[in-house]
Each structure stands twice: as structure tokens, then as C-alpha cells.
Amino acid sequence: MNLGEILVQTFTDMKTVSAITSTVFIILLGYYFRKQGIFNETVSKTLSSVVLNLALPALAFTAFMKDIDQEQLNQSIDVLIWGILVYVILMLLTPLFYRHYDGDRRKTLAVLSIFGSTTFFGTPIVSSIYGDEGTIYANIFNIGYRIFLYTYGYIMMSGLKFEKKNLKQIFGNSIIIATFAGLLIWIFQSNLPQVTVTDAVTGEVGSYAFLRIDQTAYWLYRPLQYLAGLSSPLAWLSIGAQLGELDVKEAATNNTAWYYSIVKVVAVPLINLLFILGLNAVGFLDLGSTSIATTVIMMATPTATVAAAYAINFDRDATLASNASLLSTIAAVIAIPLWIVVLSILSNAGII
């Protein structure tokens, strides 16, 4: 297949194209509604709360309500390994991008570069493009993210030692709880007590673990599916509404914030991609196209809200952190669709 055929195949894939247009259109809609006063100043925070506390936990759990697939399980293990290893690599590499800045600013920019909004920004996009498979990989990838965000990120920005209360933030988070619950059911479903279920449409009889609620308690599974379906549109509306509240003109004059944004949405996901390709080539990892694409999109997300909050709360160049968060969000809205196209081309070319 030549380059022209690969490009045609990529740009005629309606699933990819519609995912990009949906993301951009709904974000712009949220921005327009906020600018027009249809959304008030509390809408973004309210939508964020609904997404983080209801929609994303439901999405994380229901994605695992499927038959066990050995290939996906192997991919998931590699994603978990990479989801930890990549943050160690970024801890070593990101300070190099800011070596010309003073110590505190270099530290702040490095931490903001390492941690993106993978949960709120990345997971809904991955879910809309790659379905349940991508959602599984995204949530497993986020395990390492949360561990390092609330340990390394907190220590670096606060200058304090790790506190026990951070363990609750890591493992008491509703999305993490839903992820582990779904993951354990998915992995051990053949070892759980089985229930015989007759398909109402086909009449076929099957045996499923009693916790496979998609088969054994559809009355419970269906409302969770509705909640899960809210994650993408509500997250995108919230992002747009949040952009509509901020002063883009002031942030746009900050050259450091622009430089950071390019590092965050271009250099960091590129480092992620190159290392995966290298580790795949030597046999250390065996990640497929969907799992690779998932990690790249997750790493191309803008500044994590928690990381920016650390900078503000601990007085680590709060103004820069706010400007960086805004500009990286705008940059990500542009860069992620481009990354999706690049990843689709690489997949069609057989490179990933």
C-alpha cells in the first residue's frame, strides 16, 4: 500500500473522522454557550463533577463487562507496565526541555509536562474512538498516572514528604475503584460462581459469572451504560465552557507558556511513541496499534488540573501554571485530532 492509499484510507475512515469532528464541535459549542451567557460560571465545574464522579466511573466499570480475551489481557499487562515506566522516563527527560530556566520554574514546568489531564480529557476521546478496548487500556494506563501524580508530583511541588492522606486520593478515587472492580471481574470471571442466562433475542443459553451484570443484571447494567455515554459530550462541553471563562489574550503573551504547551502536546507524546516502538522492537513490550494509540492520546492531553492546583497552592509560579493550563488546552484541541490522524496513518501503514 503506497502513501496515497494510506492517506485515502485514513481520511475515509468515518469512525476516526467523526470522532475528531465530534470532539472539536462539542468543545466549540461549550465555548460559544459560555461566551453567550447560556452557560453561567458554574456550569463547567458542575459538568466536571458529574463526569468525574458518575460518568467516568460508570465507563471504567462497564468497559470490563465482556468475555475475557487473552490478547487483550496480555496487552493490558504491558499497558500497566508502560504506564509506570513512562513516568519514570519523563521524570528524567522533561527537565532537559527547561534547562535554561531557574530551578523552581524548571521544576514546575517539568512536573506540569509530566502530568496531563488523562482522566477528564484523554479517556473520553479514547473511548469515543476505540470503544471498550481503548477504555480498558486508558483506565489501566491511568493507574501509574495516579500513583505518581499524588506522590512524585505532590512531593516535587510542595517540598514536603509524602503524606498518608495521598493514599486515599490514589486508591479511594471512584474511577480507580471502578477500574479495579471491573478489572478483577474481567480477569477472574471464569472462577466466580456461574449463572445460566438465556438470551432474550436469540434464545441461546450461556453461562456467565454472576457479577457480569451485562448478562445477569441488565436492569442495572443499562443505567450504567447511559451514565457512561455521558462522559464524552459532558467532558467536551465542560472544556469548552472553561475556555470561555479564561482570558486568552493575557495568556497568549506568555512565551514560556506557549513553549510549554508545545512540549506538552507534541514532544511528550512523541517521546512516548518512540520509546514504545523501540521497546516493541527489542521484545520488551508487545503493544498493538490500539494500545499504542491510547497511550499517545493520553500523553497529548493538556495540564492536569491537580498538577496546576499544586503549583497554585504551593506558590510555584501560579500565574505561569494558569497560563500554561489554558494554552495547553487550546493546543491539545488542535494537536490531538492531528495525533489521531498520524496514529491512523501509522496503523494503516503497519508501523504500529
Structure description:
- It is built from 16 helices and two strands.
- The protein has 352 residues and is mainly α.
- The chain has one domain (3-191, 198-348): Na+/H+ antiporter like fold.
- It has a two-stranded antiparallel sheet with strand order 1-2.
- Helix 13 packs parallel to helix 16.
- The mean pLDDT is 89.
- The chain crosses the membrane at residues 16-34, 46-65, 77-97, 109-130, 136-158, 170-188, 257-279, 291-312, 324-346.
- It is a multi-pass membrane protein.
- InterPro entries: Mem_transp_PIN-like.
- It comes from Suicoccus acidiformans.
Concise account of the structure shown:
The protein is mainly alpha-helical. It is built from 16 helices and two strands. Strands 1-2 form a two-stranded antiparallel sheet.
Dominant shape: globular
Q: Give the topology string: H per helix, E per strand.
A: HHHHHHHHEEHHHHHHHH
Give me the count of strands. Answer: 2
Number of helical runs?
16
Radius of gyration: 21 Å
Distance between the amino and carboxyl termini: 15 Å
In terms of per-residue confidence, which ranges show pLDDT below 50 for 5 or more consecutive residues? none
Sheet with most strands: strand arrangement: 1-2
| CATH T-level fold name | Na+/H+ antiporter like fold
Mean pLDDT: 89
Reported for the largest beta sheet, the result is:
2 strands, antiparallel
CATH architect. name: Up-down Bundle
Structural class: mainly alpha
CATH class: Mainly Alpha
- Helix proportion: over 70%
How many domain modules?
1
Organism: Suicoccus acidiformans
Membrane topology: Multi-pass membrane protein
InterPro entries: Mem_transp_PIN-like
Subcellular location: Membrane
